[in-house]
């Protein structure tokens, strides 16, 4: 019997302001053509879940998806692929009281590789209070009481100097929880 694993694909920067349009129905087709099963999508912002029995690691699956998107749509999109257990662990490790916050106040930025506190050493956390961030396993948790759109801390964290060399993509808490549900075996 072949063991299948449930994954989420997180596409960065699609369907924003009319740029890099990737219809979810076509994304499901691309994932199916790559040999993935039980493909579902969530919202229009590049969230998909699928099963894979190949045993390929997350980075290989992400690279295959990036190449397939470029072939199908004619532009490059950074992708992260994460397994269900990882997504559950990130949600469970949230250092903020998620149950007591509105989804727009809490976000997770997923990174392509581990990031260390020294990457953010030049940032003065006190200058952004009451906004706060904490690092996790290839993730950054952001508490922004007024939401992401008004967050000065989110703007600072997105500076190229802080994200250099890594793929980073952010999801609000509702999406974080939905990705956990979508990848549950």
TrEMBL record:
Question: Could you tell me which Gene3D superfamilies the record lists for this protein?
Answer: SP0830-like domains (3.30.70.1280)
Instruction: Check the record and name the Pfam families matching this protein.
Output: DUF1697
Q: Matching PANTHER family, A to Z?
A: BLL4334 PROTEIN, DUF1697 DOMAIN-CONTAINING PROTEIN
Record protein name field: DUF1697 domain-containing protein
């Amino acid at each position: 019997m072949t063991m299948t694993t449930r994954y989420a694909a997180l596409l960065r920067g699609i369907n924003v302001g009319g740029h890099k349009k990737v219809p979810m129905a076509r994304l499901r087709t691309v994932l199916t053509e790559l040999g993935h099963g039980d493909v579902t999508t969530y919202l229009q912002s590049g969230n998909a879940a699928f099963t894979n029995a190949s045993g390929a690691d997350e980075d290989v699956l992400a690279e295959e998806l990036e190449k397939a998107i470029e072939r199908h749509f004619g532009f490059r999109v950074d992708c992260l692929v994460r397994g269900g257990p990882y997504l559950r662990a990130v949600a469970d490790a949230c250092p903020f009281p998620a149950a007591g916050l509105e989804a727009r106040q809490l976000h997770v930025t997923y990174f392509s590789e581990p990031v260390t506190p020294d990457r953010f050493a030049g940032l003065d956390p006190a200058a952004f209070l009451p906004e706060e961030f904490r690092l996790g396993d290839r993730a950054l948790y952001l508490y922004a009481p007024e939401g992401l759109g008004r967050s000065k801390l989110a703007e600072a964290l997105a500076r190229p100097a802080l994200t250099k060399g890594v793929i980073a993509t952010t999801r609000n808490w509702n999406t974080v929880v939905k990705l956990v549900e979508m990848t549950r075996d």
